[in-house]
Specification:
alpha/beta; seven-stranded mixed sheet; 17 strands; globular
Length: about 350
């Protein structure tokens, strides 16, 4: 086993503190990674604050991990020392069920093992990327293409695949009108992917001052959801709405913006339950759906797509001692658009 420094929260909503954790000894199919950067996801805040049931404390968050391979197990075939790699939201699954076999490990019937705030199959708690080293099974590690810098690539391991996967599944592309709800950590990446896929992209946001930013990311149009005329103007327009916000929304109002057979896909995860009128679906054969990140093959595909189309998250790199402040800033929407921790400062 190897010891490594990490940032943990001892209890829900407690300040972060520096500590030492142990990573398991290398198994034959394991990869040891020196972590260089770890992105901060809004779900890190929900978990560290105990907003979702089942929090395991003390907790080391972080599932947007990039770094360098420093050792490999004897049966590892896809990685060598020195490789630039990433680790996302999951670090294990059964590898045998129908979903794992088709590369959708996030839906593993045995239950996937999350990168942090989870128990591995031996019953040990998992600790995430706010640390200097991590040991991960080979099939849950991905290559970072040469066209992506490690710091900017880290949010793609969650924000990137979380938005790429549903846009691809619901056929965002030429001839499709796609709305991205929310211009934040997820939304600004979703705009870039939808634009690169060839869709006509509209951004819907509460803010009234992000029009130029949205267009710079590739949006064709921008509307403030605080403008009462927006919902009349856009009624029945979109084939797909990708909801990236982590707050409750008026579901019926957004369903009214969909065409016949349109779909509202949720990737933001508010703590409060949603409500809607069933007639908002029935009258135009609309659908409500959700999407959970993506499997490992699709994550690797997404990274190559991002590299080939010049898609990178807009980030602010911070030091380890600034994480508490970063959480506070995220909660008041004071970030453009994703914080990334420089792990060398830990």
């Amino acid at each position: 086993m190897c010891k490594t420094y990490a940032l943990r929260v001892p209890t829900a909503k407690a300040p972060f503190e520096k500590t030492t954790i142990e990573r398991r000894a290398l198994r034959p199919d394991d990869v040891l990674i020196d972590i260089k950067f770890s992105g901060i996801c809004h779900s890190d805040i929900h978990s560290a604050h105990g907003d979702w049931a089942g929090g395991i404390f003390p907790m080391v968050p972080g599932h947007e991990i990039t770094g360098i391979v420093t050792a490999v197990g004897e049966k590892v075939t896809n990685f060598v020392m020195g490789d630039r790699v990433g680790v996302g939201c999951y670090v294990d699954s059964c590898g045998e069920c129908e979903y794992c076999l088709r590369g959708e490990e996030q839906y593993c019937t045995k239950g996937h093992v999350a990168t942090y705030n989870s128990l591995d199959y031996d019953g040990n708690p998992t600790y995430g990327g706010y640390s200097q080293k991590i040991v991960v099974t080979e099939r849950f590690v991905v290559h970072i293409p040469a066209g992506l810098e490690l710091d900017a690539a880290s949010p793609l391991l969650c924000a990137g695949i979380t938005t790429y996967s549903p846009l691809k599944r619901w056929n965002a592309g030429p001839g499709k009108k796609v709305a991205i709800l929310g211009l934040g950590g997820l939304g600004h990446v979703a705009i870039q992917f939808a634009h690169a896929m060839g869709a006509e992209v509209t951004v819907l946001s509460r803010a009234k001052d992000k029009d130029q930013e949205a267009r710079a990311f590739g949006a064709n149009d921008y509307f403030s959801t605080l403008d009462p005329e927006t919902f009349d103007t856009l009624a029945g327009r979109f084939d797909l709405i990708l909801n990236t916000v982590s707050a409750a929304i008026d579901v019926d109002a957004y369903l009214s913006l969909l065409r016949v057979d349109g779909t509202l896909v949720n990737v933001g995860a508010p703590a409060e339950p949603s409500q809607y009128q069933v007639f908002s679906l029935i009258m135009s054969r609309r659908s409500i759906a959700g999407s959970l990140v993506g499997g490992l093959p699709e994550t690797q595909e997404m990274l190559h797509f991002a590299a080939s189309h010049g898609i990178t998250p807009q980030i602010e790199v911070i030091r380890a001692e600034q994480v508490d402040e970063a959480y506070e800033r995220i909660l008041r929407s004071d970030v453009r658009y994703r914080f990334v921790i420089d792990i060398s400062t830990l």
